[in-house]
Amino acid sequence: MKYKSVFDIIGPIMVGPSSSHTAGAARIGRVARKLLGRQPKRAEITFYGSFAKTYQGHGSDVATVAGILDFDTFDLRLKDSLTIAQNEGMEVILQTSDVRTEHPNTARIRLSDEKETIEIVGVSIGGGKIEVLEINGFSCQLGFDSPTLLVLHEDRFGMIAAVAKVLTQQRINVGLMEVSRHDRGSRALMALETDAVVSEQVMEEIRNIPHIFDVSLLALG
């Protein structure tokens, strides 16, 4: 039996009535923000299941937008996030969907500006914890509780070994790894949860590996 700590049970410090609908929603929003790397010009948020039915009463809308603004779950500005976003020129589109999803607390977030668009699907699983199930069309199952290295690369032989070699040389331990691809031989996304934050120098070394398209590090802490 796996025992949980008291912090897993009571969830994080947060503003709002529900860890699932507020803290979890804010964390999903922050993942999207971190992936884009800056404040977007436009945020399209689609709620499914329980989120869709109760997002206004439980504050999932303001929490998600707060996360996109890079506010933490305990930030007192969370409750004013919609107004702050408007004042900062960020267009927010909130919508719901009747499409059935595997988890009731599901949100799809699409962030964009003049340079880039990113899209994720995340679920709030309770106690402020989340799982991201999709990143730009790549399937995954990531909680982002640890620093997570995301490597976009060509789907070909030797890519995993090449990235692992760099991390091994730097004595960086990997706790979890997932690889997802759209089609054989196309692009693939490698996600590696590490025990320590990967430095920019190490990331640059990985970027220099042939057939690597992009490297980013996501750490919510």
TrEMBL record:
The keyword Cytoplasm does not apply. One of its GO terms (molecular function) is L-serine ammonia-lyase activity. GO terms for biological process: gluconeogenesis. Belongs to the iron-sulfur dependent L-serine dehydratase family. This is L-serine deaminase. Pfam families: ACT (PF01842), SDH_beta (PF03315). The gene is sdaAB. The keyword Signal does not apply. Keywords: 4Fe-4S, Gluconeogenesis, Iron, Iron-sulfur, Lyase, Metal-binding. Its cofactor is [4Fe-4S] cluster. It comes from Brevibacillus panacihumi. InterPro entries: ACT-like_dom_sf (IPR045865), ACT_dom (IPR002912), ASB_dom_sf (IPR029009), Fe-S_L-Ser (IPR051318), Fe-S_L-Ser_bsu (IPR004643), Ser_deHydtase_bsu (IPR005131). Pathway: Carbohydrate biosynthesis; gluconeogenesis. It catalyses: L-serine = pyruvate + NH4(+). Residues 148-220 form the ACT domain.
